[in-house]
Design goal:
By secondary structure, this protein is α/β, with parallel strands linked by helices. Helix content is about 35%, strand content about 20%. The protein is built from 22 helices and 30 strands. Strands 9-8-11-10-12-13-14 form a seven-stranded mixed β-sheet, with helices on both faces. Strands 20, 25, 26, 27, 28, 29 and 30 form a seven-stranded antiparallel β-sheet that branches. Strand 28 and strand 29 form a beta hairpin. The two termini are about 45 Å apart.
Length: about 700
């Protein structure tokens, strides 16, 4: 038996610190196990009792007749470590520790948590500071949560893994009220040992789980999490994640634009996109989206039919559906003809929303309308607005909806306009996702859009480039570009010059106007101190350089100047920013966005964690609003998108190869030239450790 088996489906449970008073927290777990039909053996441990109910009570773990699969530890923090040590000593495979006062309580708590983990030895620990877990599939309630007082639990296909214990009971009770069924609900607490990633990995093999919902505060081991998520999604099970802490500030950088653009929440966004995880934007989404996915149907497009008998409610739904980027086309001629042939007086059947008026109260007509729309090639999903007139006759709407499920495999969801929780529960229980908020309908429909194939590309192997000669600290632009070029990144044609006179002489090697830049590893934002001049005629180079030196002496006094950089003037390119950032929790990532001097103004960026594949980079480009400029926007030439993708991969390879030596890296702008002409690094920043 694995520790996951022992945790989720133990054949025997020792309850350490059990009480005979079911009203107390320490008395609840045994009562809940028995009330909800646990079929295994229960061993209470408490030296103060000989029996608890009809169960023999034992003084300690050593007195047990067998090694239990699982220990549920209810004693206070001062007695937990010894209790865990005893359970481990008799061969218990896993333990759930409810007590608080460990890692969440500061430095002393962290010390106790480390001691707890050591006491467990090879026995695995869930917690401490957890409310436990609920296995609804097998009716095993290993928790002290008061939510177990409810009796009408419905098993389903959604597994909830939460880093907050309170959310377990909250979401379970909401699910019960709405008719949404769960398979497993597990609170991981402080994650001294077992993490969300361990349980996520286990859900890939759990036959009862079809969807995984995650409530996350952090990801402790990003590689383990990535591997687990990949296994779950490869098993055809969607993952929906709600990540708290969205307002937290990201890793700040005093040097690069990338540091300002790459906030911590954006890195989590990148991780979820990279893994194919659906991000819940609101707490309500954490239940709404899995409920929509539980129907097991995805949209084949984005065209939605709204069927209603109440115009105002339909307008609200249509508004939210439109804001979500979905479409609501009118019925095509063939569909409209079939609808109009029903000859329903006062009904509006040739527009969308499709207002059926009183026909919505006639099951036979309502069934015919849904059948026509289900068979129509115009629509990819149907939203049915359930009006107030259905409160007294819920089956009038529910029965035709349920019968429509057999007509096609298109998603069908319901918006229940009145306050009618009974109808919501009835529909959800019978396989029709039903919502009491129009925003929830839109969020669910968006989550049903195709997520594409998982990227099975092999990880790239970065080139073996000898970096033994690389210096520490900031590099000036010329040195930075030489390092980029060493890895294969195309750079602009340029020449270094020591003095204004030297710059004037060397500028004659270029045809037409040039770009002049100050060269200094101590001045990395050159334009901010007057260290860049664009479109300089060859005859004016010396004068421009002298004026630039004068400005630098005022704007950056004391900065060591290495000379000047004379650079070809690139025309007609689309400007991007390409940067590297290392998130303190999730690790290194690459950023691509709208480049140039307005980078931070527009905040049009896409990120991915390293390493990346070609498909992931292509997805990054597509996410950007500025990517329209690559397609020949308003008469501009079509740009070399494939060369941009190549360049991002080269940049990412460099970051992976340099690893911990790389502190910051940025190219802004990257000029993407017309198709077939490639890209050029226009400016470069690089800081090494």
């Amino acid at each position: 038996m694995t520790f996951i088996d022992a945790l989720l489906n133990p054949s025997s449970v020792a309850v350490v610190g059990a009480s005979s008073d079911a009203a107390k927290l320490t008395g609840r777990p045994i009562a809940y196990l028995q009330q909800h039909g646990y079929k295994g053996r229960i061993y209470p441990i408490n030296p103060r009792y000989e029996t608890i109910g009809d169960l023999t009570c034992y003084a300690d773990a050593q007195a047990l007749p067998e090694a239990p699969d699982l220990g549920l530890v209810l004693v206070g923090a001062n007695r937990v470590i010894e209790s865990v040590r005893q359970l481990a000593a008799v061969g218990t495979k896993a333990a759930i520790v409810l007590a608080s006062g460990f890692g969440e309580a500061g430095e002393e708590g962290l010390r106790l948590q480390a001691e707890l983990r050591a006491a467990a030895g090879s026995m695995r620990i869930l917690g401490p500071n957890t409310i436990g877990l609920v296995n609804l599939t097998d009716r095993i309630m290993l928790t002290a949560s008061g939510a177990m007082e409810m009796t009408d639990f419905r098993a389903g296909g959604i597994a909830l893994l939460s880093q907050s214990g309170g959310l377990l009971g909250s979401l379970l009770s909401r699910g019960v009220g709405r008719g949404v069924g769960f398979s497993k609900l597990i609170a991981t607490g402080n994650e001294s040992d077992i993490e969300v990633a361990d349980l996520l990995d286990a859900m890939a093999d759990d036959p009862a789980t079809r969807i995984v919902a995650l409530y996350l505060e952090t990801v402790r081991n990003v590689e383990k999490f990535r591997n687990a998520a990949a296994r779950v999604i490869a098993a055809g099970k969607p993952i929906v994640a709600y990540k708290v802490g969205r307002s937290e500030s990201g890793a700040q950088s005093a040097i690069s634009h990338t540091g300002a653009l790459a906030g911590a929440d954006k890195v989590y966004d990148a991780l979820f996109k990279q893994l194919g995880i659906i991000r819940a934007q609101t707490f309500a989404d954490l239940l709404d989206i899995p409920a929509g996915l539980s129907q097991g149907r995805l949209l084949s497009g984005k065209r939605i039919a709204i069927v209603t008998s109440t115009g105002g409610a339909a307008t609200i739904v249509a508004d939210n559906v439109g804001l979500a980027g979905l479409e609501m086309p009118s019925p095509d001629p063939d569909t409209a003809e079939k609808l109009l042939a029903l000859d329903l007086k006062e009904a509006v059947l040739d527009r969308n929303p499709i207002d059926v008026t009183l026909a919505g109260l006639r099951p036979d007509l309502f069934r015919s309308i849904l059948k026509i729309l289900s068979e129509s090639a115009t629509y990819d999903a149907i939203v049915v607005v359930v009006g107030s007139s259905s409160i007294g006759q819920p089956n009038v709407v529910a029965r035709p909806l349920l019968e429509s499920m057999d007509i096609s495999n298109k998603p069908i969801i319901a918006y229940v306009s009145p306050e009618a929780p009974g109808i919501v529960q009835h529909l959800n229980t019978n396989g029709i996702p039903a919502y009491a908020a129009p925003e929830s309908c839109a969020a669910a429909l968006c989550a049903l859009r195709p997520r594409g194939e998982a990227d099975s590309s092999e990880r790239r192997r970065p080139p073996a480039v000898d970096g033994a000669d690389l210096p520490q600290g900031s590099l000036n632009e010329a040195d930075a570009k030489r390092l980029y070029a060493r890895f294969g990144f195309p750079v602009t044609r340029e020449i270094e010059a020591a003095t204004p006179a030297d710059a004037a002489a060397k500028a004659t090697a270029f045809e037409g106007s040039v770009v002049i830049k100050i060269l200094s590893k101590e001045i990395l934002h050159k334009s901010e101190v007057g260290g860049v001049e664009v479109g300089v005629a060859t005859a004016d180079v010396e004068t421009v350089c002298e004026q630039m030196l004068s400005r630098i002496q005022v704007a950056a006094p004391g900065a060591k100047v290495d000379g000047f950089l004379i650079q070809e003037l690139v025309r007609g390119g689309v400007e991007f920013i390409l940067g590297y950032n290392r998130d303190p929790h999730l690790g290194p990532c690459v950023l691509l966005g709208a480049g140039g001097v307005t980078t931070e103004l527009y905040q049009d960026v896409a990120m991915r964690l390293l390493p990346v594949t070609r498909q992931q980079v292509r997805d990054m480009v597509r996410e950007l609003k500025c990517s329209a400029l690559l397609e020949g926007f308003r008469g501009r030439p079509v740009a070399d998108t494939e060369a941009l993708i190549d360049a991002v991969l080269v940049f990412a390879d460099m970051a992976v190869a340099l690893d911990d030596r790389l502190e910051e890296a940025e190219i802004n702008p990257v000029f993407v030239l017309p198709k077939g002409s490639g890209v050029r690094a226009g400016d470069a920043l690089l800081v090494l450790r």
